[in-house]
Structure formats: C-alpha cells, structure tokens
Amino acid sequence: MDKKKYTIEELRKKIDKTKLPKHVAIIMDGNGRWAKKRFLPRNYGHQEGMERVIEIVGAASNLGIKHLSLYAFSTENWKRPMDEIQGLMKILVQYIRRELDKLHKNNVKVNIMGDIEKLPELAKEEVKRAVETTSKNTGMILNIGLNYGGRDEIIRGVKKILKDVELGKISIENINEDIFKNYLYTNGQPDPDLLIRPSGELRISNFMLYQIAYTEFWFSDILWPDFTEEHLLLSILDYQKRNRRFGGI
Ligand code: FPP
Question: Is the pTM of this model over 0.90?
Fold first, then answer.
C-alpha cells in the first residue's frame, strides 16, 4: 500500500467488490495493553474493545462480507482473574442488549463457536436469545468464539462424527475433509479467507485451527480498541493484492 493517507470513503471505493473475502476472522487482542497505557483497569480496554466490535460488525456487514468470526473468549481465558472474567461476561451481556435489535434488523445471523454451557447463567441466556432471534436471518453470519478453542473444536467434531459412525449414519471410509468440516462450529460456512490479528502478536492462539489451512494472515501493531473500519479496509485491500495458490502454482 502506498503511504498516502486515504479517507474512509476513498478506501471503500478502492476495494474491489468482486474480490471481497467471503470470510474474515479476527483475533481481537490488545485490550489489556490499551488500558495499561492509560493507567486504567483492564476491563476498560475490553469495554472500548466492545465499541470496536460494534463498529467492525457494522462495517463488515455494509461492505458485503458474508462471514465474520470474532474471538471473544478462549478456553484458556478462564485462567484470568475472576473480576476480569466477570467484567468480560458483563460486557458480552451489555453488547447483546444494546445491539441485538440492530443485528436483527440488518439481517445478521449470530452463530456461537464454543461451549456456552459453561458461561454464567445470564450470559448464557442472552447468548441463546441472540442466536434464536437471528436464527432465520440470511445476511452476514457473525461467528462469536466464546469459551472457544480450536483443538477443543476438532476433538468435539471427532466425537460427533464417531457417534454418527456408531449410529450407522456414515461409514469410516466415507469420512473426508469436506464431510468433517460439517462437524465444526462453522458447519456449512467457507473457511476464512483473511485472518486479522492486531496488537503485534504473531501467533494463532488456538483459533480456528482446522479452518485456517489456506487463510491469508494480516498482522498489525494496532491494539484492538484502536482498530477502526480504516484498518479493516486496509487489511482487505492488502488481501486483494495477494496471489492465492492453495498449494498449486
Ligand atoms: C484480548 O485482549 C481480548 C480478549 C480476551 C477479549 C475480547 C473481548 C472483547 C473485545 C469484548 C467484547 C466482545 C464481544 C463479542 C461483545 P487481552 O486482554 O489479551 O489484551 P492484552 O494482550 O493487551 O493483555
């Protein structure tokens, strides 16, 4: 990308609508550091992170992205201090209460990746309400990773497929990559074309391990609470310049 600073409007115009990534995945990282830089408690960072979730979900849906996956809470995040976990759950509830009507009006379908049975009661209820309310929507699918781990998802998929083998619904010989994909939380959805990780960390952290085999990565030093539509557009413009070969030449 040249160094000229473009306005959001100009960036939107530069995007080739015929080559949009169908599926964008984001590891939202850097909330804690954002807060620390301001001498604020970590949950202020998560709170500001929620504002960016609202902005990026709207921007992605307006742009015509069909699938957006956000990593909100990992299976490892339970190791954090109790007050931070409670803060994150409160922010999740707040997000749904504030945004569900808008998501529904915009035809967004909420899909959860992860085992929500382990979430606190109120968070679980609100998440279920979001999924049920939007279940028939046909616009962008918003996958939210909650108590999500990529390895956990694969093991869960293996157990589910073994159950179907046991029930005689499928034979071992017929199991292939395309069939196994349907046993993941992203059942029926294409793999991410683009994975964004802000905050300067260069790792995957157990996110969508099966699905990202041929995904293009976009890393940036921006902390998630500073990640705006501009960065989403820049990542997509960068993606559109890449030559994807999927193992071919
Ligand atoms: C990682 O930053 C971020 C998280 C563990 C939580 C992400 C959650 C949100 C953005 C809140 C709202 C989400 C939804 C879906 C409503 P970190 O805390 O690891 O940051 P650090 O690496 O700087 O400490």
Answer: yes
